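Section 5.1 Outputs to date
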Amino acid sequence: MTKRFIILSLLIFGFYSLKAQVLQVTALKVEQLVNPLGIDVKQPNLSWQIVSQKRGVGQKAYQVLVASSAEKLAQNEGDLWNTGKVNSSESIYVKYNGKELTSRGKCFWKVKIWTNVGESEWSKTNFWTMGLLYYKDWPKAWIGFDRAFPWDSIENASRLSARYFRKEFENKKEVKSATVSIVGLGLYELFINGKKVSDDVLAPSSTDYTKNVKANTYDVTSYLQNGKNAVGAVLGNGRFFAMRQNEKPYKIKTFGFPKMLLNLHIVYTDGTSTEIETDNSWKGTADGPIRTNNEYDGEEYDATKEFAGWNKIGFDDSKWLQAEYVQEPSGTIEAQMNENMKVMKTLQPVSITKLSGRRYILDMGQNMVGWLQIKVKGKKGQQIKLRFAESLEDNGELFTANLRNAKNTDLYTLKGGEEETWEPTFVYRGFRFVELSGYTYQPKVADFVGKMVYDNIETVGTFESSNALLNQIFKNAWWGIAGNYKGMPLDCPQRNERMPWLGDRGEVAYGENFVFDNERIYTKWLEDIRNSQKEDGAIPDVAPAFWRYYSDNMTWAGTIASITDMLYTQTGNVQVVKDNYPAIKKWLAYMQDRYMENYIMTKDSYGDWCAPPITIEAGRGKSADKKYPSQLISTAYHYHFLKLMMEYSKLTGNENDYSQFEILAQKVKDAFNQKFYNDKGFYGDNKLTDNIIPLYFGMVPQAETDKVFRNIVYTVEVTNNGHLSNGLVGIQWLMRCLNDYGRPDLAYTIATQKTYPSWGYMIENGATTIWELWNGNTAHPRMNSQNHVMMLGDLLIWYYENLAGIKAEISGFKEILMKPETSIAGLNYVNASFDSPFGKIKSNWKRDKKTFNWNISIPANTSATVYLPASNQKSISESGKNITNQKDIEFIRKDGDKMIYKINSGNYAFQIKK
């Protein structure tokens, strides 16, 4: 079972979704899952999976019970909601439609289903709890210190120490249950009686705090004790107290000093309750061991200033300050529905190399994102400095030029005595190498642990093939994608940027979804984008808009439409479209009013961003930070988004908009071809991207498609000698375009190149993630991240949909299209899996000179259309039997060298003899 269906908190565009799983043993039944806390959506969605070893299992009906207590649910009393028996095959996104839910309400639920093979038992009990639904439910006061202290600095390179707060209270009765809800800005760590509440790190997720702030809720019943108790919290800066806030005040948003709002709700066994809340009875200090914590520069920790037991009862806080009431942020308090970050993986370094001056280079063996835990022994006041970078200079020193002015340095001051173990609390960075200094002895590899940090989401896709390079690219992609999930999708994790640029994820997010359960993070990001939209309709290049960049270009801002389309396609949840339709429509109207002339979209900002220099030497030492605006690209994307809006208008009940989008799309298409098409069969300057985009978007007149595609092929095969030449925009469509127009072999050639420019070239030159630039080893370091994902383009989509043959035939994978490319020379097997909303889909094919074997798994309550590479039915067997007249396998038609079948759910083993 994967975490796609073991969800702590899941927002589906305004509707919270809870998922259970139906598991067949001798009968169908539901398995209990982890239960989410503190949601603030009054009509959550309920989903479940059916897992069965039988073929052709389909749901016919369901019944859901939701009760206010476990006891009532055990008696099959759904006092909050009883659907009765509902005749429906629907098993995902079943909207709660019972009694109105209230703050802190606990909702217990279970489901049973009827299928074509029998009736299930009731599931085990699942539950969710409601959070604080109204403003008045929260405490009256935020606390903090809205000022810098003498040891702080709030100039350009900001230095601000962490704030520590504590309060003691007494339980005079036996505790039945307790929950705590906290908004700790920018970042917090929460303790009760000395124990950290949860293993979340770098919480909560960042937002534009003038629009919304995120609250986390935890069950802390087990943390409390009879009698005296202590609650403590540490506040870090995060994005709230902005780094470099005075560097470019016209550009960088800042929100204030760290602050906190907390409600601890305790229910006693006698039915009474009490609240522990933030007020001026709390004590606080900023004179603690965390002297500064800055996402770009690092964390400085002085262990000599530790106050042992500060978060336990009995600590002497008489020298601490009285907590101060501070102004609340203007953003609305919302329950955080996307996962917080955690330490998701640990790594041991591979080597330590000595440098001059008692310095050492630690090699993690992998470009990773997170931090380093150290063990060290020394004298009181001795300082250990840790400097982080992605690579080394030729002389073995750290290469830091590409970090710009991010210091990426931690400083630890020892308290002296026994061995000390330390790791930072409120910072992260992207790195492979660490320069160590301050040691009086040579440290050992065993003294260090790398901790990889990203959102607590499951890896839901696997991919392996007979080509080792394809497999390594997949591994590099995994590390790059995971590391840049930080409550929002970042561009990079190492330099003084780390921003959620829209353009970087346009179609890349689609491929990511086959690998990671990223539904909640992208749901949250779409909310960030909507919150960043101006009243006139403008959408920024970065959202949340920590940087005020509103450059008005179709490709970056249009990511709101692309991500919406990805989530709808991959999940089947129409709510995503409903939530984003108004914002997309408003943005398109804004762009049309300002920039459309004779149906040509005249405004673009970046063009095909970061296209590769013609040779590796041509780009040596040159900055890639150059823009080449293209009306061709902006107009083509305008057409593409209009086509999406035609579909969206129907899905959202805005049918009256359909004809307007349709008429405008046709006019844009006609104007585009008149302005940009050359009768020789190419568009614009005959660049690869110039031709791919209109062809894949369906803008090329039917009679001209062959000519345009021939020009694409010529560019790749002859001009580029089998290589790509796309930047960020064109790479998002390259692989699918080549594949869908009949040249999967050419896509494979591009994917498996090891010479410049290619993904393989990156690996040949030491990359363990994905570079920002195709010429990342020679370009000027100013814009040269070694851990970006934007140049993945649609590669992972091609891996899954084309090489493995796993694609949603209708949104959400209720019906699956399985059409793998099995005739590519040199590719002899692909083994892939993907956890869809209905369950795991597997595609494992292998071929040799005599046979083709394909093992398939189709989740219950779904079906699939499969394309078998055979010229007749007689050559096909399934599980050792001739394919004809088999139950759950229906012949549809022959299509060239493929035999097409419709199959029901279950496991299949096809074999074709040549």
